[in-house]
Protein: Glutamine--fructose-6-phosphate aminotransferase [isomerizing]
Organism: Caminicella sporogenes DSM 14501
Amino acid sequence: EKEGYEHFMIKEIYEQPGGIDKTLNRRLNKEGTIVLDGIKLTKEDLDKINKIYIVACGTAYHAGLVGKVAIEKYAKIPVICDVASEFRYRDPFIDENTLFIAISQSGETLDTLAALREAKRKGARILSVVNVVGSSVARESDDVFYTWAGPEIAVASTKAYTTQLTAMYMIALHMGLTKGTLSRERYDEIVAELKTMPDKAQKILDNYQIIQQLADEQFNNESVFFMGRGLDVEVAFEGSLKLKEISYINSFAIAAGELKHGTIALIEDGTLVIALATQNHLYDKMLSNIKEVKARGAYVVAVAKEGNEEVEKTADKVIYIPDTMDELTPILSVIPLQLFAYYVSVARGNDVDKPRNLAKSVTVE
Ligand code: M6R
């Protein structure tokens, strides 16, 4: 039930602090160590694994892109992230030293399931990150991590994504600590910061009016560009998908460094560009990219961390998220983009929870 909310999507957006909290805190023991009951990977197992494939579709794939960065950083294992519909026809290079990670909210997406079976046939160990308990993907996996997001009804995935991100960080941290590639000290710092995510996410939700107002100003656009660098690119992909699927606006996302290689040709007077600028180590580079599109007439809305106010000098509008480590920002920076997609869809009078041509669970090819 919608419990007083106008749509399931907005209800599910607001359930995110609780979902992240559950996914994380119920798996921390007294010492603050992550305990993954459904995952039996020992140090010996992990030392054998020389390659990881993360395979998923849509939003779950976007969570995988962030997971790749986290696993490579903490566990020092190379990761290939692929969309399931491509992976299964690619004849991927898999053997018994490969770990295959499937991410799926429903656990019933046909392409993801077929990819999993293909990886299994070739000898990979299968780990899945799934929301629906007992679903096909979960049943066919060796190890399972359940994102305790609760049922997700709206076609546009929101709380599944932020809990999938939380899951991927936890898996990456667990691997890094078990393998010894991540120090206990650093691990503790990141876990402590992860614990602040529910409150920080809530803070963004409490400020929803800023985004609602932006949506009311911008809902008539024909096209919207999302751009970022580093982890902001992965979030840009997700923000763009969210917007297009429920608003039907032609939106797309790009690594800001790629602008000059073609896309900047599309920027004209008044084009809306959403520029994610949350990565401290890439902040100056993003400011230059913002200047580039501004010089061609774009209207730029930046998403930045509190404390990084310099962007105000260049962007037309800035949406702030609470300060956090660069590597954890996706959990927070996606929330304004979800809210933006939601309010644009409402302003356009669309069927928010059941957008045209889409199904919640894609069980056909
Ligand atoms: O159930 P799954 O996580 O396997 O579904 C994958 C995609 O179909 C899904 O994320 C889709 O992209 C959503 N509509 C995005 O909001």
Summary: The pocket of 5-amino-5-deoxy-1-O-phosphono-D-mannitol is lined by residues 57-60, 104-106, 109, 112, 155-157, 241, 245, 361-362 (CB under 6 Å).
